[in-house]
Every structure is written in C-alpha cells, then in structure tokens.
Design brief:
- About 40% of the residues lie in helices and about 25% in strands.
- The chain contains seven helices and eight strands.
- It has helices spanning about 15-30, 65-75, 75-80, 95, 105-115, 130-140, 150-164, and strands spanning about 5-10, 35-40, 50-60, 60-65, 80-90, 115-120, 125, 145.
- The strands form two sheets. Strands 1, 2, 3, 4, 5 and 6 form a six-stranded mixed beta sheet that branches.
- Strand 1 (about 5-10), helix 1 and strand 2 form a beta-alpha-beta unit.
- Bound molecules: flavin mononucleotide (FMN).
- The site of flavin mononucleotide has 21 residues, from helix 1, strand 3, strand 7 and helix 6.
Length: about 160
Amino acid sequence: MTSKRVLVAYGSKHGATAGIADELGKTLRGDGFDTDVVSADAVSDVSGYDAVVLGGALYAGRWNGEATQCARRNAGQLRHRSVWLFSSGPVDSSAEQRDIPPVHGVARWMKRFDAQEHTTFGGALTAETPGRIARALVRRGKGGDFRNPERIQEWAHHIADELT
Ligand SMILES: Cc1cc2nc3c(=O)[nH]c(=O)nc-3n(C[C@H](O)[C@H](O)[C@H](O)COP(=O)(O)O)c2cc1C
C-alpha cells in the first residue's frame, strides 16, 4: 500500500511558523506519511494530497496574508480534503495553558473547509526577528521563543492517528 500524502503549508513572515511547519512535517514523515512542507505562497494545487495542514502567523489579530491567500486560491480543492489549520502565536505561555480559538478569519476557513481541527501554538519573537516593532517589543522584554516542540509533535501524531 502506498503511504498517504500530506502537505504542510505555512505563511510565515519571520520564520517562526516555518519552524513549526518543519517540525510537523518531520513528525508526520516519522509516522509514515509522504509529507511535503511548502511555503503557502508556493501552493497552487493540492489535488495530489490526501490531507493538508495549513498554518499562519498571527499579526494584529489576523492570519498571515500568504496563508489566507493560499486558503482562498485552493478553496475548491480544500473543501474535498482532510484539512487541519493552525496559528502561531502568542509570545507568552498562554497557548500552553488553554486552547486559543482561531481568529475570526481562520474560523471562517474552518467552516468553509469543514476542517478537522484548529490549534494555536506559541510563537517566537527574538532579538533575531527583523522589524522595528519586533525590536521594540523585544527591548521591552516582550519577546521569547514559545514554540514547544513536544506540543507540535503531539499534534502531528494526533493528525497521523486521524489519518490512519
Ligand atoms: C507587529 C506584531 C504583531 C503581532 N500580533 C500578534 C497577534 O495579534 N496575536 C498573536 O498571537 N501574536 C502576535 N504577534 C506574534 C507573532 O505572531 C509571532 O511572533 C509569530 O510566531 C511570528 O511568526 P513568523 O515568524 O512565522 O512570522 C505579533 C508580532 C508582531 C511583531
């Protein structure tokens, strides 16, 4: 039997969400799925995949534009696949403490795709993050890397279980 094909697509401005997508991809591969990890702006056809995991960074309460455009561009096909969505993420421990629901725009995609599930992972904002606002936040002690590899791996295993 050939293994199921999974696409993990991400919309990431500064790399934190790309890192989460890589971890998801690695774990899904380890669980036996033929998995591609691709930037959301490069996704123009998902017909070759059994399942799609699409994630985006949150900026001012909105999903990253590339993730949103990917959802819009591929909406016709995504409606007919197993879809999981994720967001990244609070630069504090809140995502560890409770389930953070999707922002309004993402909740709409959840409905449209009849998606399986959404989760919010902690994000990252560090001294290496470019941008004036990011630098100012880090200077005020508001930064940090709140991505938790174990939680990311757990969610990937959960997706693998659902697909099996
Ligand atoms: C200007 C700015 C606005 C942000 N707005 C939000 C927000 O509304 N909600 C949230 O959870 N995180 C917010 N964050 C944190 C980012 O989502 C987090 O750093 C994320 O992991 C960045 O992902 P990326 O590196 O893939 O772009 C914001 C960060 C910056 C710099």
